[in-house]
Amino acid sequence: MLILGIESSCDETAAAVVAETDDPARPWEIRSSVVASQVEVHREWGGVVPELASRQHIRDICGVVERALGEAGIALASLAGGPEGPPHSAAAPHRDGPPHSAAGPHRDRPSYTAAPRHGEAPRHSDGIDAVAVTQGPGLVGSLLVGLQFAKSLAASLGTPLIPVHHLAGHIESLFLHNGPLSLPTVVLVVSGGHTSLYLVPELGVYRLIARTRDDAAGEAYDKVAKLLGLGYPGGPVIDRLAGEGDDRAIPFPMTRITHRDRNAPGEAGRLDFSFSGIKTAVMRHVKGRGARIEGRGTGIADICASFQRVVVEALVDRLFEAAWRNGAKSVGIAGGVSANSRLRKDAAARGEQLGLPVFVPSLALTTDNAAMIAAAGLRRFRQGITAGWDLNADAGLKL
Ligand code: KG4
Ligand code: ZN
Question: Using a 6 Å cutoff on CB, does residue 245 contact ligand 1?
Answer without folding.
Answer: no
